[in-house]
Amino acid sequence: MKKEILNKNLEIHWNKILIVGNRSYKNLWDELILLWTIKLLMKQKKEIYISAFDVDWLKWFLDNFIDVSKIVFLTEIPKWLKSGLNYLKKWKLKERKKYREIDSIIIWWWEILTEENSNSYRYRLVSILPCYFSGAKIYLMWWIQVPKKEGNKWLFDFLLKKVEKIYARDNECVSELKKYWPCIPEGRFKNVEFFMDTAYFAYERDKIKKVMNKKQKYILVNLNKNAEKFLDEVIDDVKWYVNKGYDLYFVPVSKWDKKEYNDTIYAKILSEKLKIKNINILDREYDFENFLKILKWADMVFTGRLHLFMIAKFLWIKVKVYPYQKKILKMQLVLKNFNI
Fold first, then answer.
1. Distance from CA of residue 245 to its chain's centroid?
2. Angstrom distance (rounded) from CA 238 to CA 279
């Protein structure tokens, strides 16, 4: 593993840094990406601001790992009418003064700018409007797709004019972004480089090594709406282990209200299909250390989510992936290139 590439610092030369993305939507990996990015910035003595949907929940979650007392938490800028009315109702407009203190912005999330999410280019711009025209420098991180649709091209160019640097988490992104030219006077955006997904380092592996090995035989499974087309294959794979006496843990990576973001629905579906009365639920939200201890000693992990795939790889666990999106295949290639 090329540690000098995997463990480098973020080169951000300003002090008041706003981190923008889909924060606090209760998605395991998004919060771990955030956690390690905060740790990197804390090492550099930066003043950290975080834009979040649910500020109270995010404070509580991060407080399990780091001192959050010096972090400024801001309510994210609303993207629709309903959220806008709620924003006004809670008197959040006064927070705009805090937004204007910012001198640099990190915009990132797993699908920060991609046409797989039709609204992502517009969302990212809306998220930073209070400080876009104040001279703040912008940094883009993770999965950035060069758009093909004209409307998205316009939004991307408008954003790119303010971008200081791009950190992409796979080499395909790096290559495509270096070829992109429309709004750059010199003809190419050259200030882009590979940076490993920071969630990979979010928890100290040595802490997990100290845990005693388990005696119980069990596997971990996650399934979600996007990977539903693999349901029959998952059932066949899991059934083999169940028939050999393995216990089954279901991991709800995302637990949002909407069906497409609520993995817990599929615990019930698996229970019915496999004729198991009570599937163990392994919830990471309330005791993350316990979650990792159980995950560490699983005999196998079955998942369609990049989130669970990455953390299982971090702990050297066997994983079978059901790749419903290209990002999973791309990250498999990244890990292979680093001999992980």
1. 34
2. 12
Asked whether this chain's domains 3-201 and 207-337 adopt the same fold, the reply is yes
**How far is the C-alpha of 96 from the C-alpha of 204, rounded, in Å?**
36
Could you tell me which residues come within 8 angstroms of residue 163 by beta carbon, excluding any fewer than 6 positions away?
138, 139, 140, 189, 191
Fold of 207-337: Rossmann fold (3.40.50)
Paired strand residues for 109? 142
For the chain, the domains span 3-201, 207-337
Residue of 27, 28, 30, 46 lying closest to 38 (CA atoms): 46
Q: Is 85 a residue whose pLDDT tops 70?
A: no
- Summarised one tens digit per residue, pLDDT across range 86-115 is 665 565 666 777 888 888 888 775 566 776
Q: Categorize the per-residue pLDDT at 200 as very low, low, confident or very high, splitting at 50, 70 and 90.
A: low
- The CA distance from 151 to 68, in Å, is 39
Q: Which amino acid is at 256?
A: W
Tens-digit pLDDT profile for residues 130-161: 777 778 888 888 777 788 888 888 888 888 88
Whole-angstrom distance, CA of residue 94 vs CA of residue 99: 10
Q: Which is more confident, 264 or 213?
A: 264
Specify whether the CB–CB gap between 171 and 197 falls below 8 A.
Answer: no
Q: Which fold would CATH assign to domain 3-201?
A: Rossmann fold (3.40.50)
Between CA 285 and CA 25 the distance in angstroms is 12
Helix residue ranges, H only, the chain: 3-6, 28-43, 55-62, 81-89, 96-99, 120-132, 150-160, 171-179, 205-209, 231-243, 265-274, 288-296, 306-314, 326-337
Give residue-wise pLDDT tens across range 267-281.
888 888 888 877 888
C-alpha closest to that of 305 among 34, 29, 33, 21: 29
Tokens coding 326: 């290209």
> What is the rounded average pLDDT of the residues 158-182?
81
Please list the residues that pair with 280 across neighbouring strands: 249
pTM of the predicted structure, to 2 decimals: 0.72
